[in-house]
Specification:
Elements (H helix, E strand, L loop, with lengths): L16 H9 L6 H13 L4 H25 L12 H11 L8 H12 L4 H36 L8 H9 L24
Helix pairs in contact: 4-7, 5-6, 6-7
Length: about 200
């Protein structure tokens, strides 16, 4: 009546706790140093929208700081896309190595403005004629720049696409020398290197 039934099985001895956990994880427990490094990495990952926005803002600030420094020192890695590459660097150097009549424009405008206050119509007429002559010289200079630059680009960079490069050169030459960005690296009349790779 109180005997054990034959169908009853014998209990299986339990595995030690550390063996069971090792089989579950499939890897050893990380050291304290590894665990702290993983916690720091998790803490850096933004979780909320506010944290994501702050991280993006910080990244933008770092990027713009690097870009501003590159505009000063000419570091090609951090320049904006429109200024990157050996072709654009050559165009900047080519434009900067030439004397441009646009550099006479602001001093001449100041002279014309001062002479306009004299009240002498003859002086004002001559000043306006000088101003008009400089404008004509600037246009002629820009046309010469376009053709000479095209010839240089064809000789130095035959495989590179030339679309938009003339506009880039003209836009740079229209700026006063001290206002050009990236900053000028060559002096007027300086001989340019043969290779820009």
């Amino acid at each position: 009546m109180f005997r054990r039934s034959k169908t009853e099985t014998t209990p299986v001895p339990a595995e030690p706790a550390h063996e069971a956990s090792a089989q579950k994880k499939g890897r050893p427990t990380p050291s304290r140093k590894e665990a702290e490094a993983a916690n720091k990495a998790r803490a850096k990952v933004p979780r909320t929208r506010k944290e994501m926005a702050a991280a993006q803002k910080l990244q933008r600030n770092e990027s713009s700081t690097q870009m501003r420094q590159a505009m000063r020192n000419g570091d090609d890695r951090f320049l904006p896309a429109r200024d990157k590459g050996p072709v654009r660097r050559f165009i900047r150097d080519y434009v900067d190595s030439r004397f441009s009549f646009i550099e006479l424009l602001i001093p001449l405008m100041l002279v014309v403005l001062i002479l306009g206050f004299t009240g002498n119509p003859t002086v004002t007429t001559y000043a306006n004629l000088a101003m008009l002559s400089v404008f004509v010289l600037i246009i002629v200079d820009l046309i010469r720049l376009r053709f000479r630059l095209k010839r240089e680009l064809t000789a130095r960079f035959p495989d590179a696409p030339h679309k938009g490069l003339t506009y880039y050169a003209v836009a740079r030459s229209m700026q006063m020398r001290f206002m050009r960005l990236p900053k000028t690296k060559v002096k007027v009349g300086q001989q340019l290197p043969e290779r820009y790779r």
